[in-house]
Amino acid sequence: MTKRTIFIAIYTSLAIAIVFAVWYIYGPLFSFSQPTFFWLLLVIPVLAVYEVFIANNRHAKLALSAYSQLPNQSPWQALSLIYLPYLLRILAIGALIFALARPQSQLSWRNVSTEGIDIMIAMDVSVSMLAKDFDPNRLESAKRVAIDFINERPNDRMGLVVYEGESFTQCPLTTDHTVLINLFKDIRSGMVEGGTAIGMGLANAVNRLRDSDAKSKVIILLTDGDNNAGSIAPITAAEIAQAYGIRVYTIGVGTVGKALSPVAIYPDGRYKYDYVDVKIDEESMEAIAAMTGGRYFRATDGVSLGRIYQEIDQLEKTKINVTEHNQKAEEYFWFAVAACALFGIEFLLRETVLNTLS
């Protein structure tokens, strides 16, 4: 294999690699109006064959090159410079083919208008929520289903209030659902004093929503018992919610009959379990929902609780109106400029510094 053939093979491979690198980097950014022109890339290997078997025979066997003008060059370095115009010619052809394929960038944007919904979840975390009629217990099941609900509503502001004998805000209204979900995972029974202050939990959630400018304000109130603590009655809190135009969906959590529930605590912190009658103040839950324009649901297991959240999701669906605009811009210009520049440099080198006399 002659040195000429070696250099042509090297430069052809390098040119093909560069062309494909450009395609890999810029191809995904554009759509091409005339992609059939890419078939012309097959010209590159044809030119290589031409240079090796035909063009070489059109010259004398002894060629005098101007690389004597390049001092301190080894023969291999000089030959690499002699065939540099060939590499530039191949790259120019590649750039020209890209220009002929008419790359186009697509400018697009969306006008999105949403009907904002602010949602506070008020969750009972009393000890009874550790009952095992849900898998693994009521609290963990309720957390898991609520997190799924949050993930399904990326456009809404949501927050979390927890309550036992007292109530506090675990997370105010936010669109950062990652933070909200992490705070959801942290809630546990025993965070405040014992009891079930449903009215306090509802009132706290109302307080978080009262200054909201959202078109729709919603509270999801979840409990597994009846109100036995706190200074605000559930119905009183519902009246406040009604005054602020807040809709309350109430969920009673617990099986029908008896459930394996905590009845005492051991010195080491573990709970003693026994079967206890499930008592939920459904009358108050129904009254709260009816008064505020919401609905009452009863969840007897994790599956039914999931269906309830899905139903609430459908009842309070965010409305999104999307208008899409698309505009294409021609991007062939710079590929054409690159092709002209490469052809120009190739011509200048071939006719001046690297001129070969045959």
Write structural notes for this entry.
The chain has 358 residues and is α/β, with parallel strands linked by helices. The protein folds into 2 domains: 137 residues, no CATH class; 203 residues, Rossmann fold, CATH 3.40.50.410. Helices cover 42% and strands 24% of the residues. The strands form 4 sheets. The protein has a 6-stranded mixed sheet, sandwiched between helices. β9 and β10 form a beta hairpin. α5 runs antiparallel to α6. About 4% of the residues have low confidence.
Unreliable spans are: 58-70
Quick one: CATH superfamily of the largest domain?
von Willebrand factor, type A domain
How large is the share of residues in beta strands? 15-25%
pLDDT averaged over residues: 83
SSE arrangement, N to C: HEHEHHEEHEEHHEHEEEHEHEHE
Derived structural class: alpha/beta
User: How many beta-strand elements?
Assistant: 13
- When the domains are counted, the total is 2
Cα-based radius of gyration, to the nearest Å:
37 Å
Annotated CATH architecture of the largest domain:
3-Layer(aba) Sandwich
Fraction of helical residues: 40-55%
Strand order of the largest sheet: 6-5-4-7-8-11
**Which sheet architecture does the biggest sheet show?**
6 strands, mixed
Q: Name the shape in a single word.
A: elongated
Number of helices: 11
Please identify the top-level CATH class of the largest domain. Alpha Beta
Kindly identify the CATH topology of the largest domain.
Answer: Rossmann fold
Separation, N- and C-terminal Cα atoms: 22 Å
